[in-house]
Amino acid sequence: MAVLSKIRQRSILLIGVIGFCLLAFIVGDIINHGGFGVTKNVGSVNGTDIPVKEFLEKVNNMQQRQQGATATQAANYVWSLEVEKILYNERFEKAGLRVGRDHVLDVYAQMLGQNPQFMNALGKFDKNKFNEFLVNMKTTNPQQFQAIENEKPDIESSAKKQLYATMLKASYFTTNVEGKARYAQESDKATIDYVLVPYATINDDQVKVSDEEITAYMKKNEKKYKAEASRDIEFVFIDNKPSAADEAEMKKNIEGLLVPKVVYNEETKGNDTIPGFANAKNNEEFVNANSEVKFDSTYVTKKQLPLEHAQQIYSLAPGQVYGPYVDNGFYKITKMVSKKPGASAKASHILIGYKGGSLPDPKITITKEEAKAKADALLAQINANPASFGQLVRENSNDQGSLGTEGVYDDIAPNQMVKPFNDFIFNKPVGSTGVVETDFGYHVIKVLDKYEGVQVATIAQKIQPTEATADANFTKATKLEMDARESGKSFADLAKAEKLTVTPANGLGANDENLPAVGSQRTIVKWAYANDTKTGDVKKFDIAEGSVIARLKAVNEKGLLPLESAKVSVLPILRNEKKAELIRKKMAGTTLDAVSKASGATIATATVTFANPSIPAVGPELKVVGKAFGLANGKTSGLIDGTAGVFMIQSKGIEKAPALQNVTAITTRLNAEGRSNIQTKLTSALKDAADIEDNRHEFN
User: Domain named PpiC: which ranges (predicted)?
Assistant: First the structure.
């Protein structure tokens, strides 16, 4: 039955693939010609359309450049770029902003500034070298040249954005008056006596907050609690993993490869004896016939072997076998084939660069002759005092990549380093020191160790469920789907009966794809947003790791936050407002002493600053600190509903900071703070103010 089921599944899959291809052909033609009312735009920004065809081409190009990125990740990235491009182009047009060739080359300099191919003798980006490279490429590699030309508009846009941001930064200025005001906020100190009755003195169950009150509060503060459309789902994941019996059977099967086996030979009409793995004459042939991972003849070091089993494998004599063992989801058995010395090395070095060399460091000013003399002097110091090597690295080496390891490079493979360096560490015995010249400068080298390489033959068989287990898991998932649709029982109860966990995924956006525990599942999100999917609907999705049975819990339209999401932040606010009403009744009186006696709270003292509106041992209290700086000395406030509870304060005076004669340091700091991340802040502001129509979910 299981075999027939799989044949049926594959037939359906084949029909589905053919149907999808036909549909893709038809839909592609519809989109290209705008037929059947299908939009040709993936969205618009302030009335400027983003065409589907160009958008999808850019998404495809992005996926090709960023290997491993999902279609949704690429689409979201491209969308962000397209929206920003339109918004900034509007600003550029209003400002009459244009950029020249030098501005564009500055952007290339940022992208390619560390490429030695385009550096001058001072380690700086050389525009002439880059121009020469482009001219040569136009002749030698027209395709690559055209690719660079196609990217020019984006490079020019980047140049304009940088220039525009520079103009904005230049326009941001802190006056001396503002500097003095900030100095006072940071340095003036207000001292107060206060009485505090915390909200925590009233139990939560003593006050009731209704859903209607939460909704009314959100409507009153609509900007703060606005939300895009979203979906809430819950799902069960049935992992199609092998059972304990499956794993035991797999282990038994792979163990069978260790012993001789008699098989019938159709050609000779007799029995043949196939030797076990340890006695196999042709290791490559034996591995490839029995393993899901092909034979690899490469010699490896101990560090390249599976971490938990490296010592046992590395210690094998040629011909010996280790295993079975589990590694990265596979049952494996490994045979030692052979060993050879010097497969990799460990060495430490100090690099002394010189002006005009290949090392891109403008701080290097010494000549080649001076660099050689310095390297020889360091070598003499090291030979006299070997323990000084690490300190000499930190004080002298121009190799930034090895400063953190005191110049050490470990497990160096042959030909990994430039030839003179490579030849020294592999041809000299352990403990040798010397000076070697390369294009980067002079290296003071010490050979620390050499590692023996091993060639192993490994049979690896993936641990996976048997067909019976896979069928049982499939049946279990299908039953849960059908019961959830037809039984009338709650999804949670049905899952609990099967000892399955229900996972919530709330607030899914139209362009989201990730679900907790199961990762990228764009198909499920699209189902939740489909017009024919209704609240309460259940559907099973077969994924690589098993099955997901999803249920749509709620459809949240664009507007206010969903009630359950809003409760996290709004409920404590409204609850504290009601607690404040009860607390105020206890805090009778117009003086601190009277309020203290009436409420049972003690009088405390605190010194605060306006710039840091926080009360020691209490926490942030903006209203209270603000009132402290507004009260005359000796005056008492009314009751204040603070963050932690209800306060009454009495001013003990304000200590003014000494007059500041020069505010340059403060205005400079405020200018830096205001100008930081100005482009990010501008982009966010432009998006908030824009009219953006987003139809991405229709095409992804």
Answer: 342-449
